[in-house]
Amino acid sequence: FFFVSLDLMSEPVQDTPNAAPEGENPPLGPDGQPLSKNAYKKWLKAEQKKKQMEEKKKLADAKKNEKSDAPTKRKLQNDDDQVDPRLYFENRCAAIDKLKEQGISCYPHKFPVDCQLDDFKRKFEGKVENGKTLDDELHHITGRIIKKRAQGQKLVFYDIIQCGVKVQVMCNLMFYKAGEDAFYDIHGRLKRGDIVGVKGVPAMSKTGEFSIIPHEMTLLSPCLHMLPTAQYGFKDQESRYRQRYLDLICNEGVRNTFYTRSRIISYFRRFMDERNFLEVETPLMNMIAGGANAKPFITHHNDLNLDLFMRIAPELYLKMLVVGGLDRVYEVGRVFRNEGIDLTHNPEFTLGEFYMAYADYNDLVKLTEDLLSSMVLSVCGSYQVKYHPEGPDGNEVVIDFTPPYQKIDMLEDLRAQGVEIPSDLNDPSARDILDKQCVERNVDCSAPRTVARLLDKLVGELIEPRCNNPTFIINHPEIMSPLAKWHRSCSGLTERFELFVMGKEVCNAYTELNEPRIQRERFEQQASAKSQGDDEAQLVDDNFCTALEYGLPPTGGWGMGFDRLTMLLTDNINIKEVILFPAMKPEVEHTNEEKTE
């Protein structure tokens, strides 16, 4: 019985599953003797639990490694618009640098674009049915991403724009020829604002939106800064003018304004070309600032060691060309006037001028009506244009450009309103009479209060505000028009008109003065006014007077500021809205102490 019991007791230690793990011997007890049966079981249980924990840890590590290899690559996400903009910039730069280290360029030299977005859309939008693709029409297009939205893990949508045209990019893993890894790589890399190249086929989504299904996409230039979100937009006026590039990216209405501006100038050129006018270019820097009453900018020519004036008008050079036998000439270009900045004035602006031999101001009235009415019809699609003179939230006015336009005789209208106009404006007493008229009507006129300036202020106060629809103010006094020819039937007046719309001057024209001796006398009158402190008066231009002595044929001259006309046709009340980079005061960076104060 004793030996049988020993055999039974020894079996669990050696043959049962509770035996010590292979290669391991149980430890000895504190007394150096083998463990008792109970102590051995406790040790064995602890070892088994330890081994199970190690196996679980290995399994968890293996799963973690699998996740780090694939899911981050295969996870499609929308742009995070909640990140701090400074942090966004730093993160984007770091991502670009990391790609560069991997030999991936985010600024490729070339992309084989074969179709502009507007051509792509115009050519295929009407040819593809809902839910279908044109698999035989593989094209390369480009654009800037303005919206990104992921749908599941195999589909992502982008809206890209180019020159104001938007096309949806519908990226489906199933159609991406570059492969699965490339699909997840590129879509993890692209952000709003990036410029991308798309190789793909035209398609129409099931909801009827024209799209392109890409076989491959390429990052052409990353946008390192976070674009303003659609919720808040980019609306701060000063920031928009200073960062016009961002304004054009974010605001479709701004892009449309400048497309309209371009169409206006292009139409003017076509109108002139069709009537056998020759486009020319004249100097921007002049020895004498002439051709208009304005204060000039002064620059310095280092090689000649000579101060020069930036041109205030191209008029005198253009008339010299007519003297030389170019009977019909025109120019579109910048002029520079060192005057105040307000809603309708910018120091530099774009002017169109033409000179037409054997025409007078009556011919120019008809030509102006033809030009403006046809231009407005071509650009806006109607002779009637809606305008908000007090801003988008103010009252709406409809400007009617249908010819013929109203005419107002300047001095007759002033007299009809009770203004005393001297019969001889060259008489010394004329200034005092007009000065009194301005004081009685609270018409402000800064010094020097010359006859010409006082008259101009009275007209600006009493006549111009009534000119909502296109209106000609005609027959200006000679003292206000040093380059215009005397009126053939009214002594002391000239054959001149100014066209006003919504109370603002749009164009100025007259029968040109071509008598050289009278022209010199007019210049001397202007020089006298300049000596009295009138910075806008002209000086005597001997070179021009000499040109007139060779004979200027009867000529009509005309000028228009395209900036103000663009304001009217795009419903803007601020000239900065129609100039891509308007004059701005420099930004002042304040120190922390100044900010605290």
Description:
With 597 residues, the chain is an alpha+beta fold. Helix content is 37%, strand content 20%. The chain is built from 18 helices and 18 strands. It has helices at 2-15, 37-69, 71-74, 85-101, 117-124, 180-189, 237-242, 244-250, 252-274, 315-323, 361-380, 410-416, 429-440, 451-462, 516-531, 542-549, 562-570, 592-596, and strands spanning 139-151, 155-162, 165-172, 195-204, 210-221, 278-279, 285-286, 298-301, 306-310, 328-336, 348-357, 384-387, 397-400, 406-409, 471-474, 496-501, 504-511, 555-561. An 8-stranded mixed β-sheet has the order 6-10-11-18-17-16-15-14, with helices on both faces. The protein is elongated. Residues 1-17 have low confidence and may be disordered.
Name the quaternary structure: single chain
Q: Average pLDDT across residues?
A: 89
Spatial order of the strands forming the largest sheet? 6-10-11-18-17-16-15-14
Tally of separate helices: 18
Span between termini:
105 Å
Percent helix, as a range, is: 25-40%
Q: How many E strands?
A: 18
Which outline best applies?
elongated
The largest β sheet comes out as: 8 strands, mixed
Structural class computed from helices and strand pairing: alpha+beta
Low-pLDDT sequence parts = 1-17
Radius of gyration: 40 Å
Q: What is the beta-strand fraction?
A: 15-25%
